[in-house]
Amino acid sequence: MFCDSCGSFKPSQGLQQGCPLSPYLFVLCIGRVAHSIKLVVQSGRWNGFRMGRRGPQLSHLFFADDLILFSEASLLHVGVIQDTLGSFCAASGKTISNVKSTIFFSLNVLPETRDCIATNLNFSVVTDMGKYFGVPIVHSRVSKNTYVPLVEKVIGTEDFDDDVVKRFAAILPPSPYAKEDKLVWGLSKDGRFSIKSALSFLKGNISHSVNPFWQVIWSWASPERIRTFLWLSYHGRILTNVQQVHRRMSSDPSCALCGEAREDNFHTLRDCPNAKQVWLGPVPQCLWSVFFSGDIRTRIEANLSGTFGRENCDWHLVFGVAIWYIWKWQNECIFAGLDIPSTPIALIMKRVSNFVQAASLSRSTVLGPCSDEIQISWSPPLVNWVKLNTDGSVIADSSSAVGLQLAWQFGFRQLVAEVDNMATVNAILGTSSDLSHHGHLADSIRDLLAKDWRVQLRHNYREANVCADHLAHMAHFLP
Fold first, then answer.
1. Which of 98, 182, 181, 106 is nearest to 140 (CA)?
2. Which spans of this chain does the record mark as coiled coil (predicted)?
3. CB 238 within 8 A of CB 231
4. Does residue 192 belong to any structural domain of this protein?
5. In a domain, 335, yes or no
6. What is the pLDDT of residues 221-262, one digit of tens each?
């Protein structure tokens, strides 16, 4: 495609068969034909076929490479059609195939007019336009007989796969109690959208690219504020002077304590003289060269996963607490004018000891699950009442709520229905509609319960529903 318009040109060589540009060019050309016809119709020179007294006017139909034109049967319209198609042929270099072109007249056109129009257009006259995909193009009122040839052609074919036919035949018809289809959220049990399910879905899709060390940080046993600070440090997001310059909050990236040119994460938490003085105590001298090298992520991973400090301490706890207090003390020194403690290691070790004791106390005071022993047995219904105990089994070709339907058909109007699934009871007794895959079952059961009878739906333990479970198990082996 060129940016500037060029002069007229005449195509000389067509595209080869199978060229990928062919369908695109064909669509462009057909679109131009439709545009030309539309302009002529809007000018009032072309009267198309009006579909009904107040219906729209139809001037042309395009089916792939098949074109059908509609117009008034007059010599004036013959000239308009010839001019429109002639302009397109002159621009595209194509010609109309008179052999493949036919003309169809309605019954109220005079024979003399038919012959005159056919002679001018040089098209052959037909009384039947044939079929399109097995359906007659021109027909009277649509009835069953209209599609008889198409049905016979489909039935007569021998290309159907027997397995496919059997699978279609095995599909159960829709239940008469089924409601209209609804849009549901397929990633939750109740069919309702939740932020948790959406995040779980996104996490599952990107789990291959997530650094597993994030789990180490968030499962680290310490106060939440220190875990959050570790995450920010690992992500390079603590608000150092370099970060402030990057966010256009400041113009000076140097350290306010030592005057170093750049106060980044490394400098603040490890290389600043105030921070370095803290690390020289707990880190053995033989590991100084390793500890004070590498990028921030590598150092945090190594210190939270490995051992750099003394053998008699939990180094991952000491490291996390230490970088938190280094950051805290430096901010207090800059913004509050306070001095860094003279014995920082002793204070850090004391805080680590407090965290360990608190975590140990929390684990030891967790109460175990309490349970009460109760006697479970089946109880008979009250006088003039009938009890229905149900199990999860159903007849293969049955609809939902078979037990309730039988009770209604037998004329029982005071019924106690017991189910050993609490989730089922809650779903049926709930006020909101269940949007899950089985929500329509709960809706159909609610419709049955709303009839003119008294039904008490209760939950019962599985041990009290042994008889129903045993009978349902036996029914699986019945012929």
1. 106
2. none
3. no
4. no
5. yes
6. 778 888 899 888 888 889 999 999 999 898 999 999 888 878
